[in-house]
Write a structure and sequence with these properties.
This protein has 104 residues and is α+β, with helices and mostly antiparallel strands. The protein is built from three helices and five strands. A hairpin with a 5-residue loop joins strand 4 and strand 5.
């Protein structure tokens, strides 16, 4: 279970991290919350990479509830974000959908 230390307490300072975006990932957030899931694939990919690196540890398995709890710290559409993370190949999901693991 994720620690309940307050909303977004797990997210470090947001930055571009060399992705080439002039505004950086931080422009997608207001008050520590994601304002919208980007429609442009490149921008969404930058966001998803950031979320994966900040919310999910390597070499750890998560159940669906834990993934949703982590994603809810930044946006109410946790199922949409979870789906995007799996489609992008950043999280793997077991066939039964019961567990998830960070890929990189």
């Amino acid at each position: 279970m994720l620690p309940r230390t307050g909303r977004c307490a797990r997210l470090p300072a947001l930055s571009d991290n060399g992705t080439g975006s002039s505004r950086g990932v931080s422009a997608l957030f207001s008050g520590g919350r994601l304002t919208a899931i980007p429609r442009k694939a490149v921008r969404r990919g930058q966001l998803l990479t950031h979320l994966t690196e900040t919310l999910f540890a390597r070499d750890r398995e998560y159940n669906e509830r834990e993934v949703d709890e982590a994603l809810l710290t930044v946006h109410e559409d946790c199922s949409g974000l979870r789906r995007h993370l799996v489609i992008a190949g950043l999280l793997t999901r077991t066939r039964d959908g019961g567990s998830y693991r960070r890929v990189r």
